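User: Look at the shape:
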Amino acid sequence: MSNTSNSSFKDKIPNNHIEIFLYRAPKKNHDAMMEVNRKSRDFFMKHKASNFEVFSLEDRANIMEFVNLSKTISASEEEEVWLEIQSYRDAEHVKEFSKSMAGDTSMEPLYKEFMQLITPGSVVSFGGFNKLVQVSFNS
């Protein structure tokens, strides 16, 4: 099989499980957080996560009866709200990933730096989610 075939086959494997991480960090730490997340992505991809994405909350307004996440996690105007999404084939893939990275200590300094960059005294909220419904936009 050629690399092209392997690549297109891999692209068709569904990501049925995600791990999300939600946290806040002072705006002044933006560039350092970007660098930590870039290095984290390299680490996760090295250990075969399907994908690693990072987002920053754009709008802080409530909509109708929905409360904006910035309020739920008590983010001040001097803070950014960050969301990481790690994608995996399924829950078994998460176990394989965890086993793969178990002996790799290269993430320890990065973890310490991350913990120093987030808002002091804040928590990182996280959870693993299994896809319940496959929604297709193909007609």
